[in-house]
Structure formats: C-alpha cells, structure tokens
Amino acid sequence: MKSTIDAPASRQTLSASTLEQIKQILWSGKVMPGEQLSIRKTAEALGVSMMPVRDAFSRLVADHALEVTPNRSVRVPVLSLQTFTEITRIRFEIEGMAVAEAAGHANPDLLQTIREMNDALSLEMSKEQADTQELVSLNQRFHFAIYEAAGMPVLFQMIESLWLRIGPILNYDLRQGSPRTREQVAVRHHRALIDALQQGEPEGARRAVVADIGGAYDYMAARTPSLFLPPDDRGAG
Q1: How much is the pTM?
Q2: CATH architecture, range 6-75
Q3: In this structure, which topology does domain 81-227 adopt according to CATH?
Q4: pLDDT of 188-212, one tens digit each?
C-alpha cells in the first residue's frame, strides 16, 4: 500500500515537471505572440490534469511570460519593440556576465558538449529541410549549458526569466529559415564563443555572445515588425 506521505511530494514533482514543459514550449517558440493558451488543451497535450497546468500558468503570469486578458483567458504577451530593445540591452549585460564568468570554469567536458551541440546545429542548418524545432532546441541548450557553467544560480534565473518573456520571438529567424540561418551566422558566433571559453578569455566570450544576441535582434527589429505592438499601442509589453 502506497503511503499518503508520498502524495504531496509527487504533486510537487508533477507541478515542477509541468512548469518545465510549458517553459520549453515558450522558449522554443511553439506559440506566437498574442496566441491564447487553453488550460484544458495544454493539459491534454502534456498528459496531465488541469491542476498542475493552472499552477504553471499562474507562475508564468507572475513572471510576465504569460498574461491574463480582460476576458480572463491566458495568452502569450505581444511586446512592443521598445520593450524588446530594453530586454535585449539587459541580455547584453547579464548573458555577457555569464559567459565571462564561465570562461573561468570551462572544463573539457563542457567544451566538448557545447562543441557537439554547435556541430549538430550546423549540420541541421545545412539540410534542405531543416527541423526548425531542433534548431531552436540546440541553440537554447547551447546557451544554457554555458550560463549554468558560470556557477551563478541567481544570474541564471534572471536569464531564464528574460528568455521566457521573449521566447516566442527569440528564435524567429531560426524557425523561418532566414538568410541568417542558411548562412549559419549563429554557428559562427558560437564558434567564437567556444574559442574564447577554451582560451579562458572572458572579454572575448562577452563579445561573442553580444554579437550573437545583437545579430538576431537587428534582424527581427528591422524585418519582422508584425511581431511587435504598433508604436501607438499602450497595451501589454
């Protein structure tokens, strides 16, 4: 007979797992700005009850990764370009700090892991019909492996939070097969970052990640205005 003492821990584990799965959906860009999310449909897709999904949505609303509309539905926020620009500038600083710190902790295992991820990213980009979800996943895992290696959990949580807020548009160029993807621009930035980490050069690592973030920002800000709120819209974001 199963002890009832295990029940609260099991619920906590399920809630944490559900939250992580929904975070991955946001990070991956499987949902777009303005898209409404159904608790019931999300629960069915994840194979869980509605309670952990409802709890996860509440957490993500508190983190500004989701928002509640006037009719009480939950949707992915639509950011203004001004907010996206502000978040990008913050990312320059905190992700730059993370990779600079990681340059002092980059052991052979980390270097091998991120090199293999970047090689896989390059291979996927070279395919005639690239798996866009795999591109996004590899890019996110590459970055987060380095940020975790910095050994600064508070900083890592801040980075996670910002990626959640901009996840639906963060990797838009990867999902759309843009010229940047075909030319493997991100792969080149990643190689520069790997080289800097291997050589223990914090400033080189910082420059590489800023170039990576900035290149994606420039592309989206200039070519995808439909992703953002109109300049005169005072709504969310």
Answers
A1: 0.85
A2: Orthogonal Bundle (1.10)
A3: Four Helix Bundle (Hemerythrin (Met), subunit A) (1.20.120)
A4: 999 999 999 999 999 999 999 999 9
